Amino acid sequence: MAAAMGAAVVRRLHAAQAQAQPPRLTKLALRAPKSVEVEFEDGSSFHLPAEFLRVYSPAADSKIRSVAGEKVIFGRRHVGIMSAESVGNYGVRILFDDLHKTGIFTWDYLHHLGSNKFGLMRSYITTLKKHGLTRDPQRRK
After folding, report:
1. What is residue 20's predicted lDDT score, i.e. its pLDDT?
2. Is 135 a member of any domain?
3. DSSP 10-39
4. How many structural domains compose the chain?
5. Quick check: is 17 in a domain?
6. Which domain holds residue 125?
7. CA-CA distances (angstroms) from residue 85 to 68, 82, 95, 134?
8. Keyword Metal-binding: yes or no (predicted)?
9. Where would I find the H helices in the chain?
10. What gap in Å lies between CA 137 and CA 101, rounded to an integer?
11. CATH code at 59?
12. Nearest to 51 by CA among 114, 121, 106, 111
């Protein structure tokens, strides 16, 4: 009886882990210069705009403005994607036309971004407004 209960616990644990794992990527299409489209084995698909990917790049970036201790990327409304290259079996490095190219977008991270795109974008715009910043590039003097 104890062995059967132990086996049931193990099955539930494996089921929970499987649910916690994002689905595998089945397609990534660069729609240069403005977006990336990704599809996953569970049928989910996401259209990820260049600005959104640039703002949520997983890399540290020297072009980030620190406002009250909060790092904020701004002025990237018109940023484009120049190219993308695969990194192993787990991600992609994207070269943006502002020459940002560090950071690897893993398949898991792309799924997270796609699944939470609207909330993340809303949070980004709220943060910009809070600090008096804008999505538009600064005008040259």
Report:
1. 66
2. no
3. HHHHHHHHHHHSPPPEEEEEEETTTEEEEE
4. 1
5. no
6. 25-130
7. 35, 11, 8, 30
8. yes
9. 2-20, 50-55, 107-115, 117-130
10. 19
11. 3.30.2020.30
12. 121
The answer to whether residue 37 is domain-embedded is yes
Tens of pLDDT, residues 51-77: 999 999 998 654 566 666 667 888 888
**Residues recorded for the chain:** 141
Contact between residue 70 and residue 131 where contact means Cβ atoms under 8 Å apart: yes
CA distance 48 to 111: 10
- Which stretch of DSSP H or E encloses residue 105? strand 105-106
pLDDT tens-digit readout, 3-62: 555 566 555 555 554 456 778 999 999 998 899 999 999 999 999 999 999 999 998 654
Model-level pTM?
Answer: 0.78
Please choose, from the candidates 114, 92, 116, the residue with its C-alpha nearest in 3D space to the C-alpha of residue 40: 114
Angle between helix axes 107-115 and 117-130 (nearest 10 degrees) is 80
Rg (CA), the chain: 19
- Whether 88 is in a domain gets the answer yes
